[in-house]
Amino acid sequence: MMKENLEKGILLISCPDKEGIVAAVSTFLFSNGSNIIHSDQHSTDPVQGHFFMRIEFSHPHLNDQLAVLKEAFDETAKPFKMEWSITVSSKKPRLAIFATKEDHCLQELLWRWQLGELHADIAMVISNHLDFKELTENAGIPFYHVPVTKESKPEATTEHLRLLKAHRVATIILARYMQIIPEELIHLYHNEIINIHHSFLPAFIGGNPYQQAFDRGVKLIGATAHYVNAKLDEGPIIEQDITRITHRYNVTDLKRHGKDIERIVLYRAVKWHLEKRVIVHGNKTIVFQ
Amino acid sequence: MMKENLEKGILLISCPDKEGIVAAVSTFLFSNGSNIIHSDQHSTDPVQGHFFMRIEFSHPHLNDQLAVLKEAFDETAKPFKMEWSITVSSKKPRLAIFATKEDHCLQELLWRWQLGELHADIAMVISNHLDFKELTENAGIPFYHVPVTKESKPEATTEHLRLLKAHRVATIILARYMQIIPEELIHLYHNEIINIHHSFLPAFIGGNPYQQAFDRGVKLIGATAHYVNAKLDEGPIIEQDITRITHRYNVTDLKRHGKDIERIVLYRAVKWHLEKRVIVHGNKTIVFQ
Amino acid sequence: MMKENLEKGILLISCPDKEGIVAAVSTFLFSNGSNIIHSDQHSTDPVQGHFFMRIEFSHPHLNDQLAVLKEAFDETAKPFKMEWSITVSSKKPRLAIFATKEDHCLQELLWRWQLGELHADIAMVISNHLDFKELTENAGIPFYHVPVTKESKPEATTEHLRLLKAHRVATIILARYMQIIPEELIHLYHNEIINIHHSFLPAFIGGNPYQQAFDRGVKLIGATAHYVNAKLDEGPIIEQDITRITHRYNVTDLKRHGKDIERIVLYRAVKWHLEKRVIVHGNKTIVFQ
Amino acid sequence: MMKENLEKGILLISCPDKEGIVAAVSTFLFSNGSNIIHSDQHSTDPVQGHFFMRIEFSHPHLNDQLAVLKEAFDETAKPFKMEWSITVSSKKPRLAIFATKEDHCLQELLWRWQLGELHADIAMVISNHLDFKELTENAGIPFYHVPVTKESKPEATTEHLRLLKAHRVATIILARYMQIIPEELIHLYHNEIINIHHSFLPAFIGGNPYQQAFDRGVKLIGATAHYVNAKLDEGPIIEQDITRITHRYNVTDLKRHGKDIERIVLYRAVKWHLEKRVIVHGNKTIVFQ
């Protein structure tokens, strides 16, 4: 019978591969009263490679004993030189969504969130335009209009930082927010800013990827969700997908069909990020599904 | 540095779910000198559900110490009521392929085997026709012609059993072998006979599925690889896939396009079976990829 | 240069195949001042088969001269025994959407309609529950609550018919409306009622298809959009699609993933129907894309 | 009833779009005793765009009257400034396949050809290695070994040209032939050389695309079949497809999974080319399916 106050946690581990890791970790969890619900692991190479692990576990008093558990696990982690984190499932991360004038990605995220498919609180929507004020506020989410021009960019960044801090935002989603993100923000939100690019990267980096795709005459178009780093469209890829096109599609058709890919790819990436399924290693991601 | 004589094994476990399984198993492996290379697990429900696990591990002297290891593991397994097996990777199972007059599935399996993508020895091809004699023997594989008529069916089964026994065959692949398999064979090769059915089961059970699909006007056709049990086309499904069709396709077109799905679906199912990735539970399969 | 008052029409033809059809039709259009923008055709068999054609054309005064054009085309059509229709693009058909308590299909249709991707006016949403009143009215669409119980079914049908007539509704979309449609309505809206069934028909006809899919252990789940006729789930199929699942999905997961297929499959079928891309022939459809 | 000596032809047309093309062409065919079996058309823009058409037609004496028909059609074609061709279906084009050391694309083409799925005679296989001599000759096809080194390149090209001419080769397939094609050959076989590149172009142009894909951490890998022109990997794309990969795949896995995409993409492109379904326009293709 299910214990009533059973609480769930997620343990993420990244360390050099070595014999005995799984035994040590699972023994630790068992001896501390946790039950492994699901476990995934990956090694780039069992010999001298790098090891990654994601464990969903339940524990009767996880919230209360989290600090104790963490301190205890540190002893297990040290000899293996683990980087690790334990996240309590009951605590939802706070999201900010940045948008501009294309609504499909924002709509998808709001809708999924309303359905309970995103493990997050949406703290706010920030936009350099007013178009989505009503849509956002109808969903019961604060909307902030922060105009961005070439001249006002520094002030806009200051305002962004102020809002993000005030709302204790952990993760930023760029839902077709067509502005370059300043380095200060990228640095502060390391591997916590997710962008959707409207091509199957690395093809068609930069502006107007659908026009580029049309000009090249490709037979597939795609979208790529990735973490934002200092290099435009070159951050670690979380998810990609494509759809088939034909010679009958003009650029407007490509944009219309592309939207359906963009919104689903971004949704998946955000969902997986929030469920702690994504580990960044170098410029690549491990995605435990 | 890679130890020279490192040998690989696969441990499969199926038991009622309970706290401590992973810890017990991983501790056993570690303390017996094994290193976990890859591990997958699944629970139908952490509370009172059923637990499944597949572990790829390496051990410096697996072949020599297999009997010892098995005896020792029995102690770990008993309290959890585990059904389990340990397979040594260096030992290849022996396959028999049954075929009739459609060559695409047979061709695909022979070709994948020649490429080293199937972890098996192909012991023989058995057919009720002579069409594939040359194809089979060119690949260096014995070919046996066992005609099957309504009257000769019992003799054919006797001959099949004799050949399978003589060649120590562990697994039978029905590569579009259009004959009902007798119960005696099904019983002897429990969950070791894989069939490819040319529809996305449970749609279009029985004969002429492409004609049935054409008559119904479906927009997708598919194929299903499944273990053979006593009920026609109702055994546990291992893999399925589909392809899109249009109103322009007649039944001949469906058959032609269907072949491309059949051969890839059968190949995947056979490959996963041979790599011990498939666990049958009730009438369903767990497939660890 | 584009003529300013150029109007678009769609000509649909269905007749026994015979030499000279394309020549006769294209000559008619050309000699009447029309320009063929796009043309699709299909023959089940050039000899004694059935011929289908869809032509998008432009005409400088189509709205004004429609009656004249139709009368003239009748002369061309007769010798070939054509069933045919000419639709003026500027006139949008009026839709009614029936829904119950699952919002994903309704949401998708409203959203696509707001984006201008559905060539229709949505006349109303009818539901046997009140859940979607606000959603519908926020989109500026009338909402009618018509409760349906075993006893009130006849009254409900009367009310449905009254509403459909009052709003001059041409096409009905069942957006996961979980009620049997009475024959009177099916008869009145022959090939004008589109339903979404949550399985890849003909697999899993009837209730709880996701539970059925779970029990059978399939590796793909699907959805089917079809015209409604007197036989439950057996009407002409317009579109189907599938998504891959694994042993890790329980019935709730299947439902969640299935929604994404249902909404896109229904959207496509409705879009194609409204763009006059679908011709029903017997129990099958020709879909010109 | 089917006339016994009915012969099939394919008419391809490319010209500036203008009213009356379809009427003129279909009237010509009808009045010359041809019956349209299938017709496809495309216009980049009905106003000042470019128009493309592919018509499959039958004619009772096509082989005998081809010259007469062509001369007559010239009168219809001239006022529209058509580029056009009529191909008789009974005449198969002659193919040369170039290969090196990877067999999957060659195998697929030979197998499809044996199944009757490629409308061509394979005149020969040319390779710079001896590996496929037996495979080719077993299929009853002449094999020519033409070694290519930096120094011998000019002699190799001369030998290639001699063989191609001697065997009256119309189309060249590069089945993973890892050599740069000299301009002389490209010029001579304008839009008649098809290459398979092992990435979803324009991503990963040049050498080692799977290593490039691995390094970038993409979640999809692909293949591209294209006509060869003077710019490496930049010719008109005929077909592309992709397959999903995960973080678990190393470069060897990518190569193995990529092969399955390469062979099917090349097969489709070759099939469509041989069935006269592909029209090159600028650096893009129209593919009528």
State the main characteristics.
homotetramer; 289 residues; alpha/beta; seven-stranded mixed sheet; four-stranded antiparallel sheet; 8 helices; 33% helix; 29% strand
Order of helices and strands of chain A: EHEEHEEHEHEHEHEHEEHEE
Largest interface: A-D, 27 and 27 residues
- Protein structure class of chain A: alpha/beta
How far the N terminus sits from the C terminus of chain A, by CA atoms, comes to: 27 Å
Specify the oligomeric state.
homotetramer
Read across the widest sheet of chain A, the strand sequence of neighbours is 7-6-5-8-9-10-11
* Mean pLDDT score of chain A: 94
Portion of residues within helices of chain A: 25-40%
Give the strand tally of chain A: 13
Low-confidence stretches of chain A: none
What would you say this structure looks like, in words?
Four copies of one chain form a homotetramer. Chain A is an alpha/beta fold and 289 residues long. Helix content of chain A is 33%, strand content 29%. Chain A contains eight helices and 13 strands. In chain A, helix 4 (133-138) links the parallel strand 6 (121-127) and strand 7 (143-145). At the A-D interface, strand 11 and strand 13 of A face strand 11 and strand 13 of D.
